[in-house]
Structure formats: structure tokens, C-alpha cells
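Changelog note: in this version the structure field was regenerated for every chain. One regenerated record is shown below for reference.
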Amino acid sequence: MFWNLLFGILAGWLTPKAEPHIKDALVKIAQRDLPFGETEYDVLSLLVMLILASLLVAIVGGDSMAFLLLIGAFAGLFGKQIVGLITLQSGRAENPGTGKPYSADGDDDDTR
């Protein structure tokens, strides 16, 4: 069970770093641009990394549990954002669209 979680975290964490390499490999294999959008490459990269993680679990002799592998991948992929949500400074988060901080009272004015 431990290996599933560990390799899942590793797979999730490495997914954004592996995506350009997976995309380049697919283009070289197909010898042309593929009609995939960025979202499809994101999902495909995560799936490839999860398959590799499950193979590593099998190699080390662990019991394969898809649930823990997925929980680990979620933690690895979104861990930075999760920690950021938990440790908000002064109850304010930043709006990714405008860059302005949100406030807990609903007033998004940054003139305080």
C-alpha cells in the first residue's frame, strides 16, 4: 500500500515535467502533428505516468491498489495548490485571472 501512495505522488509530481517529452515522443512516432489539445496531452501524460507507477509497484512486489495510486497522484499533481489553500496568509487568496487578492468579507478591493 505504501508503494502505491509513494509512486502515485511521484507520478503526479512528474507529470507536468514529463508532458513535453511525451508529446514530442508521440509526434516523432506518428511523424506528424497530432490533433490533440493541451488538455488531452495533460490527461495522456498523467495516464502514462500512472501506468509507469503501477509497473514500479509490481516490480517492487507491492499489492496494486488503484485508489491509493490515484490519491497519491492527486497529492503529487495538486500538492502545491492544496498547501497554498491550507496556509492562506491573512485569509486572502489571489484571483488567478486578475492577480488581485480575494478577501474573506467579499470585498475584493485592494485599497486597504
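Spot check on this record: The chain has a mean pLDDT of 79. The CA atoms of residues 19 and 76 lie 15 Å apart.
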